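Q: What does the assembly look like in three dimensions?
Context provided by user:
Components: two
Sequences:
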Amino acid sequence: MSDAIEIVVNAKVLRVEPGVTVASALLNNDHHVFRRSTTGEVRAPVCGMGICYECRVTINDVAHQRACMVTVEHGMRVDTGSAA
Amino acid sequence: MNGARRSDAIVVGAGIVGAACAAALARDGWRVTILERSFASSGTTSVGMGHLVVMDDSPEQLALTKYSLRQWRELTPTLDRRAELDACGTLWVAEDESQLAALRAKRDLYATADVATEVLDPRALSEAEPHLRRDLAGALRVTNDSVVYPPGATLGLLDDARKHGAVLRDGIGVEAIVPNGVRLASEVLRADIVVNATGPWAPRLTPALPITPRKGHLAITDRYPTFCRHQIVELGYLTSAHVMTSESVAFNIQPRSTGQVLIGSSRELVGWDAQINREILRRMLQRASHFMPRLGDLSVIRCWTGFRPATPDKLPLIGRWDPIPGLWIAAGHEGLGITTSLGTAQLLADQIAGRVPEIDPAPFSPMRALAAVHS
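A: Here is the predicted structure of the complete assembly.
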């Protein structure tokens, strides 16, 4: 990954491939907790194509962004595992 | 009723008012059957906001809401998670100096009625609710108001009724209320008393009741757990509710226990047309964004409509209906049926049992409808 870019996931710097979705970047780095349900259950991508809304994360402070529909950008902040 | 045969009561309607009446009557020893044409909470109860609030449109409304809230507080220890009770309080927000004066009058009125409040200046208001616009004149916090999930609370009341012997028969439509009974599709059920608790549908069974469906829209967002902490209402809300204009909107927002934000409110008189009126919905959301500018950044996941059972004098119809032997009415609560369900049930059960109710039942007598026609 010589051309890797950096994103910040839950305040930790992560080196990821450019051009992939946030969902791919997280899964490729063994990050499986995207958000939590109302009863606290772990949620992660199901459809990978913007339909199921299970992969929502907070991106640059905007809650409920579908990780599978957003391409990573250098310096992007991603927060996961919250109610959002 | 000790020693005597247990008398039969039929409650028509398993919304929150019917459930509360069934529970109160069952506790009094009545053998209660609840008849519900669809399923519990399938009507107005499931489409409202779930306020547990003091309201002061009239002295009678203040008395009934206050009385009801005390009963909600007594019920609180027995409510389970389904009720999603949140003691978030209410903020009445004032936009300018004239509204601030009205806010102080409200504070003084509530003080004489022993309702706990606190006036917030603009700075305190911004701290309490950072997403409200910064140029508001102030707010009145009504400390003991709460929010509840009405279908969940209704299930709890039905459990209580069943614990005291009540039976819920759902999927059973009542075709007519007859003297000391009801007519179903294929049989007549007899009972000593019948309670019509069918909300906006009550005139279908008791045609002289002056109840009109008053349509409302609501929108609910995805989960934004820190967006607001209180239920917030603009001071002009009571005007919007009081005046029976053909349509109006007023800012009213609630934090839900899931972290979602429930946004209201609208009022329309358009019969039973349940379609979403995009223009009203737009005005309602614009009104909300006017008070909370960041609201537009939130994602709304669902919008719906419902029908409040409105009466001409803004008071519910609670009491005996003389023209039909054995018939009692508990309907017409407009937008306050969740709050006033418990007070209604107690007021009704007291009158049925011949006890003197704690608050004056006369202003709520459904017979005033006939008096109004004949005068």
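Follow-up: Residues 14 and 40 of chain B are 5 Å apart (CA to CA).
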